[in-house]
Amino acid sequence: MNRWDKLKEEYRQSLKSSDTEETFDLIFYRPIGFFWAKLAAKLGVTPNVITIASIFLGIGAGVAFYFDNIWINLLGVLLLVWADSFDSADGQLARMTHQYSRLGRILDGLSGDIWFASIYIAICLRENVTSHFFMEHTWVIWVIAVVTGVCHAVQAAMADYYRQFHLFFVKGEQGSELEQASHLWDKFHALSWRKNFWQKLVLMFYTNYTVGQEKRTPSMQRLRRLLRDRYGDVIPQSFRQRFRAASKPLMKYTNILSFNTRTFALFAAILIFRMPWLYFAFELVVLNVLLIYMMWRHERICRQAQQWVEEN
Question: Burial letters for 243-258: b for 16+ Cβ neighbours within 10 Å, e otherwise?
């Protein structure tokens, strides 16, 4: 194998799965992320350091979006794109170097929340000084932002959960970051507040995050219990392939709810329409409708999968 073929194979292994990768990511973010990951590996930089760097870039983007100036806003676009290329790189580096950790997964999710929190704050402050309506009713935009932020968190959490569940059937337990709240609580109670304060605090928040995902997916949880009771840790390959085929069409919705589509909407609201509040409307209406549809479809698939198991 020549050097170019070896590099292509290394790039391929840095990806999650062709089932879950978004086309724009494969064209744009993954190649750039692979470059950053290779550079980081050469310099001895860990995935968590890249994630933390992305947080500062995302905050910088939020600050730039506060100004009603097209050139500063374009700088914000550049910083957010840079942040997302780092967000891609940390995962690719972790897969390339096998530096997986629960802390890294938590940091990765938290980084995106911090980016958008800074962007939401910037939009609110900007609208309160540029929009006549929001200048007279300053509290309205903040209420909208809080509600949008809650919806955003649920959208991202569920998109990630469905993606990990799909990867569980594609790559098995080792290729997925699918967690179970009961196991996390066992680990939580095994830690000491006195000796493991920060580790236990982080695990508490992460476990509650997982609990929320499980409560929103009752049919999925029944399927997981049925599979565990019927097959233990060895799920038949025929079932894996059948569920993968049913679940794969929903992966495009998880991608829409993740990053690229919402940033395109954000950039359009700020750069083209010059009305940043339109981004909140997009999240509240379009993405919430998509979330409800995706959850309904996935729960129906899980109920059908239960019938497949019971028929065998």
Answer: bbebbbebbebbbbbb
The predicted pLDDT at position 1 comes to 63
Q: Give residue 235's identity as a one-letter amino acid code.
A: I
- Which of 26, 4, 3, 6 lies closest to 16, judged by CA? 26
What type of residue sits at position 180? Q
Question: Going by C-beta distance under 8 Å and a sequence separation of 6 or more, which residues neighbour residue 116?
Answer: 58, 149, 152
pLDDT tens digits, 121-175? 999 999 999 999 999 999 999 999 999 999 999 999 999 999 999 999 998 877 7
DSSP state of 16: S
Between helix 30-43 and helix 47-66 the angle, nearest 10°, is: 130
What's the Rg (C-alpha) of the chain?
Answer: 21
Q: How far apart are CA 156 and CA 259, in angstroms?
A: 9
How many contiguous H segments (helices) and E segments (strands) does the chain have?
16, 0
In the numeric block, the tokens 């096998």 are attached to 98
267 close to 75: Cβ distance less than 8 angstroms:
no
Dist CA 3 CA 231 (whole Å): 43
15, 16, 18, 21: CA torsion to nearest 10 = -90
Contact yes or no for 15/88 (Cβ under 8 A) = no
CA atoms within 13 A on the CB side of 165: 29
